[in-house]
Protein 1
Amino acid sequence: MKTKPQIIAGFACMLFLVGCHSPEIKPEAARAPQVQGERVVFPKDCPQISALVVEPVELCKGSATRLNGRLVWDDDVTVRVFTPFAGRVTKILTEVGRTVAQGEPLAMIASSDYGQAQSEARKAASDFVLAERSYNRVKELYDHGAAPLKELQSAEADFERAQSEKQRTVARLALYGGNANAIGDVFQLQSPLQGVVVEKIINPGQEVRPDQMLANAPHLFSPLFVITDPSRLWIQLDATGQDSQRLKAGQPILIRSRAHPDEVFNGQIDVISDFLDPATRTIKVRGRVDNSKRLLKGEMFVSVELPASEQNGFDVSPKAVFLKGEQHYLFLEEAPGQYARRRIKVGPEHEGKILVLDGIAPGQRVVADGCLLLDQLIANGGS
């Protein structure tokens, strides 16, 4: 039979064993994040906060648009020289790279057509002299009453026709650098503009014809000479529909060439096409380039940069933005350890940043890394 002290000792032992097997309150449960609708709240000592990276939003500084371009001769100061008369080249008077003045001879061409034009001009001059004498004689007779009015009117009409023909033939020769006083079948092919000879496709003894020139088809018929001012160039660009939104006539551009990596050339956009090229589905854009240093060359490929344009919005890291369905979201830091999911409107990505057009304000901070963890916590209710 147990004594009273033994009973008390056994009861105390049972209480100790029961206390050893009682449920233990885990400290991790007290530090778990709490989900409140679209918000996630972490306790101060929650280890999951260390997995989040928070950055301040930045005002959008704009981004530069880069395109590829090709340099061509400026047609405003370029002339492609063809012969106006059929004939044979007897002498070439210039070479590629030489600067020529307006009206300077480029080549000598023996042409019977040119000789015929000279003959017509001399004949028109002779007919004019004869018609003038006849008119003066009839007019004098008419003034003395010795000739009828009808005869005077006929002489006056002949005189005017002869005068018009003389002016026409002389103007035709002057247009091509000839005159009615010269005699010969050798025609001087002259430069219509002052500039530099950049192309020469002509050989001594070559037969040339005026029908070698076909309007708007230089790829079919090559000119004998191309003369231009190399200090002025055009640049041709192919822009996409998205790029065209940032292109405007008169807009400055920066041109760079691999041949001169340390040089930046200034230019300007002049013309933007109103239609898409059916082959490339791009918009043709033309600009001009300042080539006063003569470093750039025709038909050279270059890169073009449009200066950054100001845009309303904020730049954030691409990791801060995620897509749910058809909407974009990010997490804002409302306070240390408190993050709210916010739907936003995004713009194009540029220079490693995403443009946010609506949904955030200046001075706010966003979760730049770890937003998927927060979104998963909201989806699971914090568990």
Protein 2
Amino acid sequence: MTATSGRLLVWSPRIIGILVSLFIGMFALDAFSEGKPFLHALPDFLIHLSPAFVLLTIVGASFRWPWIGAVAFICLAAVYAMTMSKGRLDWMLTISGPLLVVGALFLWSWFERGKLHES
């Protein structure tokens, strides 16, 4: 494995994981609906941000232990697909798809960690 591909394999799940958490966090903006005062919407906004904070925490732990990211992101993708998508394929692909991709990248990074340290 070349040094460039090794760095790409190490950094891509982390960067994409951060981007996925930002994408999930974007849905929290829905708390600021029309006619609702800012101070009343703020607690709802923070509650709706909690999934994004959970994902960021997982990405943070995965910097040291990529297996945590692999297990957590794959499990979150499966749990969302089975419970929250309610048979809607578009919801499942929109939320579970990126989670599954990040989990697979962390898994690949974890399996290749020996080769990454050699180069």
